[in-house]
Amino acid sequence: MRIRKAIIPAAGLGTRFLPATKASPKEMLPVVDKPVIQYVIEEAVAAGIESVLIVTGRGKDAIENHFDVSYELERFLEEKGKTEELAVVREIAAMVEVSYIRQKEALGLGHAVLCGKTWAGNDPFAVFLGDDIVVSERPCIRQMMDVFEERHASVLGVMEVPRKQTGKYGIVAGERESDRLIRVTEMVEKPAPSEAPSTTAVVGRYILTPAIFEALGRTGRGAGGEIQLTDAIRLLMEREPVYALTFEGRRYDTGDRLGFLEASVEIALSRPDLKGPFAAYLKRLVAGLG
Question: Which residues pair with 55 in a beta bridge?
Fold first, then answer.
């Protein structure tokens, strides 16, 4: 069975980016010239995802507007002969089928995924965190799909982190099946460094079987009074296997100010139209600091 659907939770308030996020969703903050969530959806489309559900909240209308048709803007660009810009705008609206549902209470990532139960039905699906960008030659989620198609089980995207940072992530441990793949036997949400079973952290990408919804229904409120997806995955592991894949690629946490700046600089340097002049500017800047 192929993964054709993806859920993107995007209802968070983005308080780490205040005041910028007071009136604008954090997922719409631009990295160079595209909002963060567009990078995420482009990865999904490149991997073959055909339908996306974005879980939004109050004040997130800008996300819906971005992926909708903008007749006035298109007409303006057409009249001005701006064919390149017009093509870009039309491509965004035609990129993928996008649906929306509102998370009416801020009850955490697990609850946001649960909001997609009716939409997902009995199909396995991907989950992308709306502020995690992964740059890779082969889309990160496609790498995980390959594991799903072989194992027919849930797959978590993971990476190694410094032990002092384990308190920021869900941490997994398990039986290693290859250099990059483990069968998960233990999963802990944001453990202290001294209590973490490993330094393998779950970051921003999941493939889940529909059985996760039953597990989420049995999951009470955990850390922070929220329904934690980590807790539900632990329940899921009691009835079916769960795997963790160390994906190939560079992950940026754009929900963190330093991560956002790193993404902006490195993605700009990867672009042929910006690399030369921007690299020259950075060299001058660094020389001036010295």
Answer: 9, 101
What confidence score (pLDDT) does residue 24 get?
Answer: 87
Where are the chain's structural domains? 5-255, 256-290
Cα separation, 253 vs 133, whole angstroms: 7
Alpha helices in 97-139 (DSSP H): 109-114, 117-120
DSSP assignment letter at 105: S
Q: Helix 140-151 and helix 36-46: axis angle, to 10°?
A: 40
Nearest to 113 by CA among 151, 172, 154: 154
Q: What share of the chain is helix, strand, coil (3-state, %, to 5)?
A: 40, 25, 35
For the chain, percent of residues with pLDDT exceeding 70: 98
pLDDT confidence of 190, banded at 50, 70, 90? confident
- List 245's β-bridge partners, or say none: 157, 181
Beta-carbon-side half-sphere exposure of residue 87 (alpha carbons within 13 Å): 4
Q: Residue 252: how many CA atoms within 13 Å on its side-chain side?
A: 22
> Residue 240 pLDDT more than 90?
yes
Q: How far is CA 68 from CA 35, 91, 96, 172, 202, in A?
A: 14, 10, 11, 38, 32
- pLDDT single digits (tens) 135-171: 999 999 999 999 999 999 999 999 999 999 999 888 9
Q: What angle do CA 10, 233, 200 make, to 5 degrees?
A: 85
What's the CATH architecture for 5-255?
Alpha-Beta Complex (3.90)
What is the average per-residue pLDDT within 10-25? 86
Identify the bridge partners of residue 202 per DSSP, sorted by sequence position. Answer: 158, 170
- Residue 224: pLDDT above 70? no
